[in-house]
Design goal:
This protein is an alpha/beta fold. The strands form five sheets. It has a seven-stranded parallel β-sheet, with helices on both faces. Strand 14 (about 565-570) and strand 15 (about 575-580) form a beta hairpin. The protein is globular, with a radius of gyration of 30 Å.
C-alpha cells in the first residue's frame, strides 16, 4: 500500500446480513479517491431476484419498484471487478461490506477480490476517541460532513470518502511519538488499517504537547489568578441590561425578572435558601450567572449540577460574560480523583502485551486521546468502551497528573463547577484551603438527583451471605498457577474473612461491625490482587465493588450518627443477608451540606414536591424563600385516545414526516408487546427503535436525532434522565397506557419537558382530575372525531409541525 494508490470507498445496501442465509445486494455505491481528492463515483441498483422485506425498505428507502428493472449482480460483476482492480478498498465496517461483496462474487461464479482494505470505523475510534458514536451518521454530524439520504449506498459511500479524508488529515496532526506508537504497536486493527497508518507522515512538531515518560500528553492551560478588581454595577432595569448585554439577552421579561430576583436574594445579609421554578427556554443559566458574577461577595461561587452538558454551558457562559464585561474570572470544573486517568499507571500497562484484543485496541485510542484532552476525564472516552476492565485499572488517585492539574486550577478560580458527589467529597478540603467556613453562594441545578446522590454517598450495603459463599467457593477451587506461598496466603485470608463474618453475625455493635467490615473488604481486595496476578480472570461478582464499598465504610467511620439495618431476602433464588449502614439523609443534609453554605440558590424547570420539601427543611437561622418565574410558554396540544386504538393514531401521524415520535409504556415487557405490534402495521418510512430490543436506553438516547423518522418505544426510565439538558423529549409523545401516569408527577415532568418546543403534541388518555390539574399546560384538541378519517384530521393538526 502507498499513498499514490487509488482508494475506493464501497458501500452496499442488502436484503439480509449474509449471502449464505439468502441475503442479496440491492444497491452498490463506490467513490474513488486519488491523490487525496474524490475523482469519480459509481452507483447502481441491483435486482435481488427476491422480494425486499418491508423493514429493509423502511431502513434503506429502496423499494421493489426501484430494483425491478435493475441489472442482476452477475450482470454488473465484471464492471465492479474491473473498477476495483489494483485499488485499496475502504468501508465503514469493512468486515461486512468486503466479505459480502466477495460472497456475491463466489455465488455468481466470479473470482473473489484480494485487495487491501481499510476500516473507517476503527480509524475513527482511534483518531476521534471522544466522538459521540461511530455510526456513519454520528461521525458525519460530529465532523459537519453532509450526509443526505443515509442508508443509500451512493450517499453513504460519498460521505465515508469525506470521512476518510478527514481522518487522514487528523492522523497527520498527531505528535510524532504517538504516530510511531500506532504504526509500530501490536494493535488489533482490521485488515490493512494499520498499514494505512504506516503511510502517514506527521505535518509538524506540536508545541502543545509534553512527553510524560513514554506518552505524549497535551499541556495544561496556564492558570491565571484573577485577584481584586472593580466590578461593573448590576443593571437593575431591562433597558440597562439591554444596553450592557445587547443580543445576549432574550426578549423575554422572565429572564429579566429572574436576574433581579437572584440579585435581591444574594444581596441580603441573612443566610438563606431560595428555590425557584422557571419555565423552559427563558435563558435561566445566563439569568442567574450575571448577578452572581457582578457581586464580589458571591465569590468563590459554587455551581452544582449532575448534567455534564450544563456544566459545559455554565463554563462557556462565565467566560463569555467575563469577556463582555471586561472582568477577570477564572472558572474550573472538578471531579473526583477516580474520574481522571492515571497517566503513570497507563504508561506501565501499555507495556503489558497479554491483554485481550479489545483492551489492546482501547489502549491505542487512549494514546491519541491523551494528545487531545484538556481534562483527562475518563468519561470522555467511554463510548464504545463499555465493560473494558482497563478503565478501572487506570483510574487515578489524588497524586495523578490530571487530578493535580484540575486541583491547581480550582485553587486559583473564582467559579467552581462540580457534580454532587464530587462536592460531597471535596467541599471541606477546598474550604480549608481557602480558609473559609462556608461557601458564600452555592447554586444547584438538576436538584431532583441531589437527594438520592446524598443518600447514596453516606450509605453502604454489604451482602454478607454472598461474600461468605464466594469465599468458601474460592478456598475449595483448584486454582492452577499458584505458588505454595500464594495458596497458603489464600487459605489463611479466607479463614480470617469467614471468622470476621461470623463475628459480625453475632454482634449488634455498629462501630465494631464497621471495623470488621473494613477488615473483611481489605482481605477480599488483597485476595483479588493475588488471584489476578496468578491469571485467575473471573472473580466473584460480589468482589467487583469492594473498592467502592471500602471507601464508603471508611467514610461512615468518620461520622457520629449512623443507622444500621439488616435485610434477609431472596436474590436470584439465593438467600441474601444484607447489612445496611447509613447516615440519616436529613442529618447529612443539615450537617454535611447546608451548614457549610451561606446562600443556596436552587433553580429548576421541574422540582418534585418531596424534593422541594426536603431542601426547604433547613436550620432555624436560615431564611427560606420560594418563587416561580412565569413565562408565556406555549401549552401542549393534547389528543385524547378515547376508544380508538393507539396504533391507528400512530399510523395517521406517520403519514407525514414529523421527526421522532416517542412512545412511553409501563415496563420492558410492554415495550416488547408494542414493538411486536407496531413492526407489522407501520408501513411508512418510520423505523422502530425499542429499549432493550434494539439497544439500551443510554445507547438510544446517544444516537437519537430529533429529525429522524423513528418511533422510539421506551419505559418510564427515560423520565429519570429528563433533567439532563442533552436528553430532551421530542415534540411528539404517545403514552398508550394510563398506568404510566402513576405517580402523576410523571405527567408534570413530561409536560414541562415538552414545553421546550414551540409546538408539541401529547397523545394519551387523561382523566378529568389530571386534565384539570394541568389545565394551564394543556390545550385539548376537542374537535378530533374518532369516527372520521384520522389521517385527514392529523394532517390538519400537524400542519404547525
Amino acid at each position: 500500500m502507498n499513498a499514490n494508490k487509488t482508494f475506493v470507498v464501497v458501500d452496499l445496501e442488502t436484503t439480509g446480513q449474509s449471502v449464505a442465509k439468502g441475503g442479496r445486494i440491492i444497491q452498490i455505491g463506490m467513490t474513488f479517491i486519488k491523490n487525496r481528492r474524490i475523482i469519480d463515483h459509481f452507483e447502481s441498483f441491483v435486482n435481488p431476484a427476491q422480494p425486499i422485506d418491508r423493514n429493509i425498505q423502511q431502513l434503506t428507502h429502496i423499494s421493489q419498484k426501484e430494483v425491478k428493472n435493475a441489472p442482476y449482480f452477475e450482470e454488473i460483476a465484471p464492471v465492479i471487478q474491473n473498477l476495483l482492480t489494483g485499488t485499496v478498498i475502504i468501508a465503514h465496517n469493512v468486515n461486512f461490506d468486503y466479505p459480502y461483496l466477495n460472497d456475491e462474487f463466489a455465488r455468481t461464479g466470479f473470482p473473489e477480490l484480494t485487495n487491501a482494505a481499510i476500516d473507517t470505523v476503527q480509524l475513527a475510534q482511534v483518531l476521534l476517541p471522544t466522538a459521540p458514536g461511530y455510526r456513519l451518521l454520528d461521525l458525519t454530524t460530529y465532523l459537519n460532513i453532509t450526509l443526505n439520504n443515509a442508508h443509500r449506498a451512493n450517499a453513504d459511500a460519498h460521505a465515508t470518502a469525506l470521512l476518510f479524508l478527514s481522518l487522514w488529515q487528523r492522523a497527520e496532526q498527531l505528535p510524532t511519538l504517538v504516530l510511531q506508537q500506532l504504526q509500530n504497536g501490536n494493535w488489533p486493527l482490521l485488515r490493512q488499517t494499520q498499514a494505512f497508518l504506516q503511510l502517514i507522515k506527521p505535518k509538524s512538531k506540536r508545541s502543545d504537547i509534553e512527553v510524560f515518560s513514554q506518552l505524549a500528553v497535551k499541556k495544561p492551560t496556564p492558570v491565571i489568578e484573577s485577584g481584586p478588581q472593580k466590578l461593573p454595577v448590576y443593571p437593575t432595569t431591562a433597558q440597562d441590561k439591554a444596553a450592557q448585554f445587547g443580543h445576549w439577552l432574550t426578549p423575554k421579561e422572565a429572564q429579566n425578572e429572574l436576574m433581579n430576583r437572584v440579585n435581591v436574594f444574594i444581596s441580603k445579609r441573612a443566610d438563606g435558601i431560595l428555590t425557584m421554578l422557571t419555565a423552559p427556554k427563558i435563558g435561566k443559566t445566563l439569568g442567574y450567572l450575571v448577578p452572581l458574577l457582578l457581586n464580589a461577595a458571591s465569590k468563590p461561587l459554587m455551581l452544582l449540577t449532575n448534567d455534564e452538558s450544563l456544566q459545559i454551558q455554565q463554563r462557556e457562559l462565565v467566560q463569555k460574560i467575563a469577556k463582555l464585561l471586561d472582568i477577570r474570572v477564572q472558572v474550573a470544573t472538578l471531579y473526583d480523583a477516580s474520574d481522571y486517568i492515571d497517566v503513570a499507571i497507563f504508561n506501565q500497562l501499555c507495556q503489558r502485551t497479554e491483554d485481550t484484543a479489545q483492551v489492546q485496541f482501547f489502549k491505542a485510542r487512549v494514546l491519541v486521546w491523551l494528545t487531545q484532552t484538556n481534562t483527562g476525564l475518563l468519561h470522555e472516552i467511554q463510548v464504545g468502551a463499555s465493560n473494558i476492565p482497563l478503565i478501572d485499572e487506570i483510574r487515578s488517585d489524588a497524586s495523578g497528573l490530571f487530578f493535580k492539574r484540575a486541583q491547581a486550577t480550582v485553587d486559583a478560580s473564582d467559579v467552581l463547577i462540580m457534580n454532587f458527589e464530587t462536592y460531597f467529597n471535596q467541599a471541606n478540603t477546598l474550604l480549608t484551603a481557602r480558609h473559609l467556613k462556608k461557601w458564600p453562594v452555592v447554586t444547584m441545578e438538576t436538584p431532583n438527583q441531589f437527594v438520592s446522590d446524598l443518600e447514596a454517598f453516606y450509605h453502604v450495603s454489604i451482602d454478607l451471605k454472598a461474600l461468605q459463599n464466594s469465599l468458601k467457593s474460592i478456598v475449595n477451587q483448584e486454582i492452577v498457577g499458584l505458588t505454595h506461598k500464594q495458596r497458603l496466603f489464600i487459605k489463611q485470608s479466607v479463614g480470617e474473612a469467614l471468622k470476621l463474618i461470623r463475628q459480625i453475625y453475632q454482634s449488634q455493635h455498629t462501630v465494631t461491625n464497621l471495623k470488621r467490615i473494613e477488615r473483611l473488604l481489605i482481605i477480599i481486595s488483597r485476595l483479588s490482587e493475588v488471584l489476578q496476578i496468578s491469571g485467575h480472570s473471573s472473580l466473584p461478582r460480589e468482589w467487583q465493588s469492594v473498592k467502592q464499598q471500602l471507601a464508603k465504610v471508611r467514610r461512615l467511620q468518620q461520622q457520629t450518627v449512623i443507622e444500621n439495618q439488616i435485610d434477609e431476602t431472596l436474590v436470584n433464588d439465593q438467600k441474601a443477608i444484607i447489612y445496611h449502614y447509613r447516615v440519616p439523609t436529613t442529618y447529612a443534609y443539615h450537617n454535611m451540606f447546608i451548614n457549610h453554605i451561606h446562600k443556596l440558590l436552587v433553580i429548576s424547570e421541574y422540582l418534585d414536591t418531596k424534593i422541594s420539601e426536603f431542601l426547604r427543611d433547613t436550620p432555624e437561622n436560615m431564611t427560606v424563600e420560594r418563587d416561580f418565574i412565569h413565562n408565556d410558554t406555549q401549552a401542549i396540544s393534547l389528543v385524547q385516545l378515547g376508544k380508538t386504538s393507539p396504533i391507528l393514531h400512530l399510523q395517521a401521524m406517520t403519514q407525514k414526516n414529523i421527526g421522532e415520535i416517542v412512545v412511553i409504556v409501563p415496563d420492558i415487557e410492554r415495550v416488547n408487546h408494542w414493538y411486536q405490534k407496531l413492526r407489522h402495521v407501520i408501513t411508512t418510512e418510520y423505523n422502530l427503535v425499542a429499549e432493550g430490543i434494539t439497544g439500551s436506553l443510554e445507547k438510544i438516547q446517544r444516537q437519537s436525532h430529533s429529525e429522524q423518522p423513528n418511533i422510539v418505544i421506551l419505559t418510564p426510565k427515560v423520565l429519570t434522565t429528563m433533567w439532563l439538558r442533552d436528553q430532551e423529549l421530542p415534540r411528539i409523545v404517545v403514552v398508550p397506557e394510563r398506568s404510566v401516569w402513576q405517580p402523576v408527577s410523571r405527567l408534570a415532568l413530561v409536560l414541562t419537558e415538552m414545553q421546550r418546543h414551540p409546538a408539541a403534541l401529547l397523545v394519551t388518555q387523561l382523566n378529568a382530575m389530571q386534565r384539570h390539574r394541568f389545565k394551564s399546560q394543556l390545550k385539548i384538541i376537542s374537535n378530533l372525531n374518532h369516527k372520521q378519517n384520522l389521517i385527514t384530521q392529523y394532517d390538519h393538526i400537524l400542519n404547525d409541525f
